[in-house]
Design a protein that fits this description.
Structural class: alpha/beta
GO molecular function: hydrolase activity
Family: Belongs to the TRAFAC class TrmE-Era-EngA-EngB-Septin-like GTPase superfamily. EngA (Der) GTPase family.
Shape: elongated
Strand order of the largest sheet: 2-3-1-4-5-6
InterPro entries: G_ENGA (IPR031166), GTP-bd (IPR006073), GTPase_Der (IPR016484), KH_dom-like (IPR032859), KH_dom-like_a/b (IPR015946), P-loop_NTPase (IPR027417), Small_GTP-bd (IPR005225)
Keywords: GTP-binding, Hydrolase, Nucleotide-binding, Repeat, Ribosome biogenesis
Number of helices: 14
Helix content: 25-40%
Strand content: 15-25%
CATH class of the largest domain: Alpha Beta
Pfam families: KH_dom-like, MMR_HSR1
Length: 494
Amino acid sequence: MSFSIAIVGRPNVGKSTLFNRLVGKRLALVDDTPGVTRDLREGEGRLGDLRFTVIDTAGLENETDDSLPARMRRLTERGVDMADICLFLIDARVGILPDDEIFAEILRKRAKHVILAANKAEGAAADAGVIEAWSLGLGEPIRLSAEHGEGLNDLYSQLLPLADAYEERAAEEAPEVEVSLTEEEAEEGAENIPMPTAKKPLQICVVGRPNAGKSTLINQILGDDRLLTGPEAGITRDAISLQMEWGGVPVRIFDTAGMRKRAKVQEKLEKLSVSDGIRAVKFAEVVIVLLDAAIPFEVQDLKIADLAEREGRAVVIAVNKWDIEDHKQEKMRELRESFERLLPQLRGAPLVTVSARTGKGLDRLQEAVMQAYTVWNRRIATGQLNRWLASMIERHPPPAPQGKRIKLRYMTQVKSRPPGFVVMCSHPDKLPASYSRYLVNGLREDFDMPGTPIRLHMRGQGDQNPFKGRKKRNAGALKKHLGGLQSKKGGEKA
């Protein structure tokens, strides 16, 4: 990404619609309700041959106290300071309001470059507003329709000369992110686990119920008040991603909206927020499930953790607000007992206590994340697996339904991230789930894979026999070898 653009303006002028248009995806929440966007959201924008980072901001409101709108304004001003270019949006159909004039003055003082755009400018009804935009003193306004994609060529023409100035800096500073691993990289052994780099940062998602302290925790990790926080539950509505270094490890960290029980998710905006958080879990590598120490392991917490496990992500359980817990030892015993009982599918996953407010326990949390990531990438040699499988069968043979013995012949690991195994056997459809659980629990214990999701598949011999092609090749080689010996023997007799 050669440069960054912050889209700023009053609430409900179409900033998130334009953001989605530039990134080519529905990443930001869009609704007719003003004030939907509350945090800074970043995405990879493209316009013609230009590639840039685009930042969606909260609507600028003329508030300076400690209210929620005022904190949103300060956060947007931070986005203005961060960005290389500010795209100032006004509503062409409404025209220039006093707040537009105030914010134009702020941008003149704080922004490096300002481009003025009159949005919702389709049709003759917007002509007066476009002409009125000249009065802001920011040059000729671009006539845009973010909803219909009109006017983007004019935006491209204004961005092109500015982009050239940032190319050299981008080559030195801008990291390459969200790079997919090749099949070979995914199957590397445990001793060659791919460590996160600036080009391939470790993707971390923080999920939990509303007001568990997710944004506060991320601000503490960042060492900066980058995400909007406050006593109100449900302030975060989008899944916000940020790139940084945590303990020397490059990471991309997602803050998500709080996920409440489905019966309580009534408003359209909150429904969109929950699906946004689910998407963030799917794109993460390690999921931090943040609990409130006062009310841990409620039904929704369990559902969130189970979602992360079903998606095949490494999971870390973090218990927040530990600084205000009075009976820590007794509480920790209760937490561990509840964890083992309620989430057996994640048995052994890291369980750490933190205080997002004070920052205590963040070093332990970072160690737990790296531990979960290492286990998630683990690769076990086929020879080891088959020696282990033989010992497991000897200890507890598989059942014989209707007198037919199920033979487990061969085992290999076919995937990592999370570890996935295939066992070649007879009558795979008759092997009970309890025996598969027996093998999975044995893998966790004997190969030090606590907590990570493990995928175990049973396959019949048939066409899926991994030795089938090798037998054919060996038989052909043997036939050729014997034929050569016979020819040699006949030649010697002659």
